[in-house]
Design goal:
501 residues, alpha/beta, 19 helices
Length: 501
């Protein structure tokens, strides 16, 4: 019955839009323009239909084009042409696969007694589609918030002897940005080779002075995915959201913090900024290095796949569980990170704890969380109380009633803005990185996550998550259902856009 109502509503909206449109413009050149424009919208509608997308995405685009032909047309040109995605990144995908096969060790055998049968199946999946083996010869350290994270980053950058590789979505020309720039210039003047890759859209405000200062010292600075005319360039929608640092091939950083003072809590609008990053040393750094070098090659055609870059210093007596670095992006049609998250959730025996500033899951992840909660698994979701992207914020809240009814617990972080991207299963297996629990991270952005299996950092993540819950307010279903009708309408409208977010 619901589907029938939706179809009838869509037909009604389309018909009304058609009548209104032609009642307004029925003279002169405008008439001919409207005919051409309407024909274009209809053609796009057929293209979307025959692309065999997920039904929710197809219906959303058809509704947008039907209800708002002009805006929908522009929005489709900017964000909707996914049929070109495979073609755009096919070469990158093939090169990446060849590189991983050549330089990454084969899948490691997993001790079922240590992790259990279900987790063993998860590991087989993660190693197969993630293109990287699980390392049992690596060391990790959890870094909480900006002060600790940037303190470690600044310290280790100063130790670089051979090279520094950095890849970021956002880079600010502010206090912390200048501190990092000064260290990079000092290291470059001492013979250290430095390569700096930033996203052209995420860091669009980065000043030319900042870039020129780095280049003047010999630092190679490259923008990922530059966009001159967004409407005519479909790459505008596929961004590099990764945050990677590799120092001398043996020290690495990955996580949720970009380079900017707001990540140190200095933005008065957000105040305290809750985030999580990870320090990595040893074998697992090679995968971070490979991810960076492949992204660098994609933009420059410069190949540095040599032992000097891919031979991390061995660690003595490293016995801290398993560490695996996995990249995801629009170049891989397997939706790698989403499917690994799905595997983690469905393999849970006791608990699934998630923290994400942007919670807009697709149907697979949403169903997995609901089924886990209905099965008696302790499902918890930690999200911000204060939004930074209002459409995403309201879309997120539209998912809350179903989760609460299934028995999941939802907490809103009250102390400031919560930007951590965490998944914890059974307090033994965890993910930390750049990927949010949303469709953009699953299907559109280039992301990278660290997956930790029974490491000391896993225990630290569990402790920090429980501490974050103490700074949060738990939503109760009865109270949440009493929210104003205006909010419900806003949430439903925002959710309608969720396949596009």
């Amino acid at each position: 019955m619901k589907n029938t109502v939706r179809v009838l509503l869509f037909i009604a909206v389309l018909a009304l839009s058609y009548i209104f449109y032609f009642d307004q413009y029925l003279s002169g050149m405008v008439k001919y323009f409207s005919i051409v424009f309407t024909f274009s919208v209809i053609v796009i509608g057929f293209l979307i239909f025959f692309e065999n997308r997920h039904p929710a995405q197809t219906l959303t685009w058809l509704v947008v084009l039907g209800a708002f032909p002009f805006l929908g047309f522009i929005f489709y040109l900017l964000f909707g042409r996914n049929y070109r995605k495979e073609k755009m990144y096919k070469e990158k995908y093939i090169l990446d696969q060849e590189t991983y096969n050549k330089f990454e060790p084969g899948p490691k055998e997993i001790n079922a007694d240590m992790f259990g049968l279900f987790q063993e199946k998860h590991f087989q999946l993660a190693q197969r589609i993630g293109n990287s083996a699980i390392s049992f010869s690596s060391e990790t350290k959890l870094l909480t918030n900006g002060n600790e994270t940037f303190g470690e980053i600044l310290k280790w950058l100063k130790t670089a002897k051979h090279h520094i590789h950095m890849e970021y979505y956002i880079v600010r020309h502010d206090e912390i940005g200048n501190q990092i720039k000064d260290i990079l210039i000092e290291r470059a003047n001492n013979g250290v080779k430095i390569r700096f890759l930033y996203d052209a859209v995420g860091a669009w405000q980065l000043s030319k002075d900042y870039i020129n200062d780095l280049k003047g010292a010999g630092v190679e600075v490259v923008a990922f995915g530059p966009v001159k005319i967004p409407v005519l360039n479909n790459k505008f929608n596929f961004r590099n959201h990764r945050k990677i640092i590799v120092i001398d091939g043996s020290i690495g950083f990955v996580g949720g913090l970009n380079i900017g003072d707001e990540y140190l809590g200095k933005n008065p609008h957000f105040g305290f900024w809750r985030d999580t990053h990870l320090f990595v040393r040893g074998e697992a750094v090679r995968t971070l290095q490979l991810i960076f070098l492949q992204d660098w090659y994609y933009m420059t055609n410069d190949d540095f796949l040599t032992p000097g870059y891919l031979s991390p210093d061995p660690l003595e007596n490293a016995n801290d569980g398993g560490v695996q670095m996995i990249a995801g992006g629009p170049d891989n049609e397997l939706s790698v990170l989403k499917n690994i998250f799905f595997s983690m959730i469905t393999s849970a025996k006791k608990s699934v704890w998630v923290a994400s500033p942007y919670f807009v899951p697709d149907e697979d992840i949403f169903s997995a969380l609901k089924i886990a909660a209905l099965s008696g698994v302790d499902v918890r979701l930690l999200v911000p109380h204060k939004p930074d992207k209002r459409i995403v914020f309201h879309a997120s809240r539209s998912y809350f009633p179903d989760l609460l009814e299934a028995g999941a617990r939802i907490f809103e972080y009250q102390k400031g803005f919560m930007h951590s991207k965490i998944v914890i299963v059974d307090e033994e297996m965890a993910s930390i990185g750049t990927s949010n629990m949303d469709m953009r991270s699953f299907h559109l952005n280039f992301e990278v996550n660290a997956f930790l299996y029974k490491t000391e950092s896993t225990s630290s993540i569990v402790k920090e998550y429980l501490h974050d819950l103490e700074e949060s307010e738990e939503l109760q279903l009865e109270e949440f259902q009493k929210r104003h009708m205006g909010y419900r309408i806003l949430e439903s409208t925002s959710r309608l856009m969720s396949p596009l977010l």
